[in-house]
């Protein structure tokens, strides 16, 4: 590793009078570098190098096969003309809003329900969390069957209850049912996961605060608004950042469940990137969109984190 | 924990609580139970026919299973080796570039999957790792590193200095101290990191879809989705549910056994914010 050549020359010269101590320190530094070398190798080869490469690719016409040629800024100017991409941006934003609101409400509700120790709460927590142990792609295939007309129990059940009069084609029937199917899948798979994070925040609030508020005659809604939510702000912010980022980058659920349809109505931004790269064989264009997405996400994270910092003071 | 004295009407509230949460629990468990049930149901009653069909899908799922096992073992082993050594370095040594490297490792979390996978597809080709299970595993190790390194660093930091000193008095070098003494002190974190790496690698879909492009290299999730095809109406749903159960079962069993380790990892992750 070239990193091991990083020595501190000035320290070596000053070392004369107290050599043993500094020698030990230098030896420990060298050993530390040695143990960190595998991390440095993985991070530089598989993370930093691709990060540089993706920017370079976005400046080139880069076909899947054949030689790249420099063509700045065509890939970036083409983004605006890509109608599929424009539709995908609009859809992804809409999906992010709906998904974040639904998922947060369900996860927070579940966390409130299982926050206190009482009989059966351990079982409930496990039940709500268990879907998160299943892989997301596996869960998507599960819902493909669950919501299907062929073997799915949803249509017979709803018909039996008189809620629908004839079977609904949930996944591919209309843009709205396709979106609804996806929201149901993601909520099922991730509500327990987020519940657990929110639970760690809930349990960090001292019990005495609740007792004091109850003494003062505060009702449940007041306690939630005045104590629980303000004190949980950092946890809530973390969960929201993860939900928003995850939704903006949604891919598996649409690729597997809806296939981006019907009529491209559920095609997300990441699906467009994959299509540019591996269906239209234009890696340069895919790289340009990726760089744009990275920029948006970094900006979003910075904004969210600064809001969080300011409020938590 | 002592509770405040119960007020009148608590009994009704309590049964209301159990009706609500019980219904919710059924709602969350139902898809899993349904999947298991429909995987053993055939038009002529219950049998394992769907599983037989699944095992013989195309040329048999043996190849995909072996690929999945290979990717999962390489990812778990790679993540553990790199993060234990890295955590040891970050937690107990001072060296130039320490903070920069640690921050670069955490920055992996900030970068979207496609942003890194599109250039990785090209880069792995240059390294001779195109369409390779080794290449995919290396990438999955990289994706695991922020969490794994963070977790291992905290564990190594928490080990008392006396323990390391004792090992050195006994004549161990730094590596001997790690191998003979410290590794036992950080065992819970090793289990947690290993469990997370297992679940991530066994279930990975997106990276595998992009980096593997011939069906003899497919892992189980990619093969299962390819089996779905995109022609609606011709999906063999019962066989697919058998596949779902087959892929989900190891994760569910492992999770139920190692729930404690999983939640520990969670706390570490949640406190990061």
Question: How would you characterize this protein structure?
Answer:
The complex is a heterodimer of chains A (313) and B (273). Chain A has 14 helices and 2 strands; from the N terminus they run ααββαααααααααααα. In chain A, helix 4 (83-113) crosses helix 8 (175-202). Chain A folds into 2 domains: 2-58; 84-312, MetI-like (MetI-like fold), CATH 1.10.3720. Chain A is globular, with a radius of gyration of 26 Å. Chain A has a two-stranded antiparallel sheet with strand order 1-2. Helices cover 72% and strands 1% of the residues of chain A. The model of chain A is unreliable at 1-16 (pLDDT under 50). Chain B has a single domain, classed as MetI-like (MetI-like fold, Orthogonal Bundle). In chain B, a hairpin with a 2-residue loop joins strand 1 and strand 2 (45-46). The longest helix of chain B is centred in the N-terminal third of the chain and has 31 residues, at 62-92. Classes of the chains: A mainly alpha (313), B mainly alpha (273). At the A-B interface, helix 2, helix 5, helix 6, helix 8 and helix 11 of A face helix 1, helix 3, helix 4, helix 5 and helix 6 of B.
Gist?
The complex is a heterodimer of chains A (313) and B (273). Chain A has 313 residues and is mainly alpha-helical. Chain A has helices spanning 9-14, 19-58, 74-81, 83-113, 121-129, 136-146, 154-160, 175-202, 207-215, 220-231, 233-248, 252-258, 269-278, 283-312; strands at residues 60-61, 69-70.
What is the element layout, followed by pairings?
The complex is a heterodimer of chains A (313) and B (273).
Chain A lengths: L8 H6 L4 H40 L1 E2 L7 E2 L3 H8 L1 H31 L7 H9 L6 H11 L7 H7 L14 H28 L4 H9 L4 H12 L1 H16 L3 H7 L10 H10 L4 H30 L1
Antiparallel strand pairs in A: 1-2
Chain B lengths: L9 H30 L1 E2 L2 E2 L2 H7 L6 H31 L5 H10 L5 H14 L6 H26 L2 H9 L4 H12 L1 H17 L2 H6 L8 H9 L8 H21 L1 H13 L2
Antiparallel strand pairs in B: 1-2
Helix pairs in contact in B: 1-12, 2-12, 3-6, 3-9, 4-6, 6-9, 7-8, 9-12, 9-13, 11-12
